[in-house]
């Protein structure tokens, strides 16, 4: 019988950095007291937590007002910062070929796709990706398609669950089929945590039935509820998009059913469109007075729902008496609001420019 690998560890301890042996000692103690079901995930969470703590220590030592740093759009350059915040570290890891070096940028990014209080996966300027994937979307690149066999009844349930979810709009037939093929059913009990803040991103989830609360703990403080999800909602995209630790904890508030999409399929099919829209509308949405009080992540969700529509000068966007299904924000251009009185005489009652809105319930 082969001896377990751990049996050889003491023999090489003298070559190992002290910090490493201390960390492993701590990890061993936590594993033996917790006895986790998923050991790999537990270890990944342990190291992510350590990185987060180290980063918070570093940030408080190097920035006077870390809370002033705002989230911005996940543009490719910002994504690069997120991954490539490397400096002249002598302990730098091997880089995947497809991640470009960005020499001359600041030691720390001044812009993040999510609020700074959310743990992001970099520390001390060291690259700490949770996987070797490039930040570039994998759309268009070949990837091994995941096919989880399922009944037509299951397929119908997936289709109903994603029917009104904006992230699944604009998929062509093949992409739609690939997404449905790759999804896997997950039953969750009331109180179960599907995602834990700081954990490693493995799946993106769509809610078929049930309900979930989403909590964020800032700087190790108490968890605060930031949003909730019901049927048709989805969560868990950020860690997959940015190779970052989970930004929030998601807990079932009743027995629920989820459809989970693996990270490779998510990145290969859904990520490109999602990050493009969030990037495209971010700065515009920041300038809309109606949305000024929203958190960056809430603006991302609005961006998911937006579609640009072009109108010629003089063309009617909506007509008086029409049933209103859409809410409009003026991205560029101007519009007049005309109203007919009971005699059929039309007069201008409002004039709207960029950032103005109409339609829907307004
Ligand atoms: N305010 C928020 N900030 C970050 N993530 C949020 C927020 N509200 C909801 N979430 C979701 O919570 C998820 C936790 O896992 P992810 O970071 O992968 O993706 C996150 C988002 O889908």
Automatic annotation (TrEMBL):
Example GO molecular function: protein kinase A catalytic subunit binding
PROSITE patterns assigned: CNMP_BINDING_1, CNMP_BINDING_2, CNMP_BINDING_3
Entry's Gene Ontology cellular component terms: cAMP-dependent protein kinase complex; cytosol; nucleus
Residues binding 3',5'-cyclic AMP: 237, 246
Amino acid composition bias (Acidic residues), ranges on this chain: 85-105
InterPro entries, alphabetized: cAMP-dep_PK_reg_su-like (IPR050503), cAMP_dep_PK_reg_su (IPR012198), cAMP_dep_PK_reg_su_I/II_a/b (IPR003117), cNMP-bd_CS (IPR018488), cNMP-bd_dom (IPR000595), cNMP-bd_dom_sf (IPR018490), RmlC-like_jellyroll (IPR014710)
Entry keywords, A to Z: cAMP, cAMP-binding, Nucleotide-binding, Phosphoprotein, Repeat
Organism (species): Jimgerdemannia flammicorona
Subunit structure, as described in the record: Tetramer, composed of 2 regulatory (R) and 2 catalytic (C) subunits. In the presence of cAMP it dissociates into 2 active monomeric C subunits and an R dimer.
A Pfam family of this chain: cNMP_binding
Cyclic nucleotide-binding domain ranges (all copies): 167-287, 290-362
Protein name (record): cAMP-dependent protein kinase regulatory subunit
Stretch list, region Disordered: 60-120
Family listed: Belongs to the cAMP-dependent kinase regulatory chain family.
Any one GO biological process: cellular response to stress
Keyword Repeat: yes
Origin: domain of life: Eukaryota
């Amino acid at each position: 019988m082969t001896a377990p690998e751990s049996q050889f560890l003491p023999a090489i301890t003298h070559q190992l950095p002290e910090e490493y042996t201390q960390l492993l000692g701590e990890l061993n103690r936590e594993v033996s007291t917790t006895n986790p079901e998923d050991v790999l995930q537990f270890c990944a969470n342990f190291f992510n937590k350590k990185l987060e703590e180290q980063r918070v220590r570093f940030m408080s030592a190097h920035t006077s007002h870390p809370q002033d740093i705002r989230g911005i759009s996940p543009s490719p350059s910002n994504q690069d910062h997120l991954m490539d915040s490397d400096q002249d570290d002598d302990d730098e890891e091997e880089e995947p070929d497809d991640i470009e070096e960005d020499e001359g940028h600041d030691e720390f990014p001044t812009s993040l796709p999510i609020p700074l209080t959310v743990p992001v996966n970099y520390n001390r300027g060291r690259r700490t990706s949770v996987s070797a994937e490039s930040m570039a979307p994998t759309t268009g690149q070949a990837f091994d398609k995941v096919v989880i066999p399922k009944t037509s009844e299951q397929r119908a349930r997936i289709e109903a669950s994603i029917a009104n979810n904006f992230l699944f709009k604009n998929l062509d037939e093949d992409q739609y089929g690939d997404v449905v093929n790759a999804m896997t059913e997950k039953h969750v009990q009331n109180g179960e945590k599907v995602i834990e803040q700081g954990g490693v991103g493995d799946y993106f989830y769509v809610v078929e039935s049930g309900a979930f609360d989403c909590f964020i703990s800032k700087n190790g403080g108490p968890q605060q509820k930031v949003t909730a999800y019901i049927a048709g909602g989805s969560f868990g995209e950020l860690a997959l998009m940015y190779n970052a630790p989970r930004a929030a904890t998601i807990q079932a508030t009743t027995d629920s059913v989820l459809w989970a999409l693996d990270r490779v399929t998510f990145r290969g099919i859904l990520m490109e469109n999602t990050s493009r829209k969030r990037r495209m509308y971010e700065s515009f949405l920041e300038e809309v007075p109606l949305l000024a009080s929203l958190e960056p992540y809430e603006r991302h969700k609005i961006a998911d729902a937006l579609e640009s529509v072009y109108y010629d000068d003089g063309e009617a966007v909506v007509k008086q008496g029409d049933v209103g299904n859409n809410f409009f924000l003026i991205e560029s251009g101007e519009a007049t609001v005309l109203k007919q009185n009971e005699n059929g005489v039309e007069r201008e009652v409002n004039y709207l420019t960029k950032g103005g809105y109409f339609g829907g319930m307004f």
